Amino acid sequence: MESGKTLESMAIMRLMREISERLPGGKMPDNYVVFDTETTGVELSVAKILQYGFCIVVDRKPVSYFSQLVIRPNLVIPKGASDIHGITMEKLVKTAIPANQYVPHVVSMMQRWVDDGLSIVGHNLYKFDIPLFQIESAEFGTPFRFDTDGVIDTGMMVKAAQLGANVKDGETLRGFYSRISEIRAKVKWSLDRHCYDVYNLGRSGVNKTDAHDAANDCRLTHCLLETLRQEVER
């Protein structure tokens, strides 16, 4: 992406600066964890997490990325969901860990990362992955709450850039993410159908066809955030 080449690129550069100012320390973090999930659907009231993905970033470079499939009793995976991410009951039976065992482990990891000062990053975190994980962590007896004024949601940033929106004076990141997530508009901001090509995310080594695997989506999100940061620092 060439800075200033399109309205979107100009808007996203402005948003990067505005969001950085509202983060702890007033800047984008060098150390962070990218978080993503694959699920049975997109309705929070009924969706269940099937796969957790993480990418640990130190000094802006990924040092580890991994994912884990989880299973639970009476689970049903709609065909439409399987067609997107390729996760089937047969695959889960062979390789998944029971959700009631793995979710408390995720909570423990998240708390340790937060205590160590790592920021949480994701694409569409605010509207989907965060609330869904909060529901599931509570379900399994280990409730975890995110400080959404400290998370970085690249999905809401790209969506806002497409809309030509900015962070208002005095607005918190929580307020910004909430406002942008509620706007219904036909704009493009998905990792594979928009960001991959517009921001040249192929440089991460992940192919577009690998999207919708939680670990690979974490790698793409890391590459997106660092691409945007490099443009701001030019």
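(ticket continues) Second input and output from the same batch:
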Amino acid sequence: MVDFKPGYFRERPVSELPPELPEVRGMLEGYYGFNDAESRAFDKFISDTATIESEGGTVNPDSSARGIYQFMTTKGKGQNAFQTALKRTERTYKNFGSDVPDWATRAKKHGDPESLTESQQRDVFLSNIWKQKGTDKLIRKVVGGDPESAVNLYMDHHHTRSGPKDAVRRSEERARKFYGARYGDGGLIRDAYGRTLI
């Protein structure tokens, strides 16, 4: 049914996952077998990343970055991170034996993260990270509450360390401060726009 590459960590066989998995967040929880604390830590990483990326708004006036997770949408070879992430989203759904949702197919045509719902943008963000080489170990450490792994997962597999050195350094310092000391203790719960819920 599902052909994962050897070495991927999982506590539950894919055959034990529910047949209908509505979104990538649930798929990954089943794949990794998160306990309650790990599930909360994973949600905190998602929420913190959304806040880091879009606390100034979901449309970046200085680049083509759009949406809650600020995917670059510039047309041209090697420039459209959103299209790459959508391809990874399709592969994630197929890996779990689920149909690719219509919204993902439509998004490849319109190319606008802003037209997706919050949960759809989260699907794209998580798929984009999960389908990259070397993220399994980092995800496992992140859900264990390790802030350094959260920084590395973000910087190496979402934000990327490309660009001017000063800008990369500032981004990494900001991520380190944000994921930092509060990470292991659970911190505050926020929605994708950074608004404190509790």
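Agent notes: The chain has a mean pLDDT of 79. The longest strand covers residues 65-66. Closing as not reproducible unless the customer responds.
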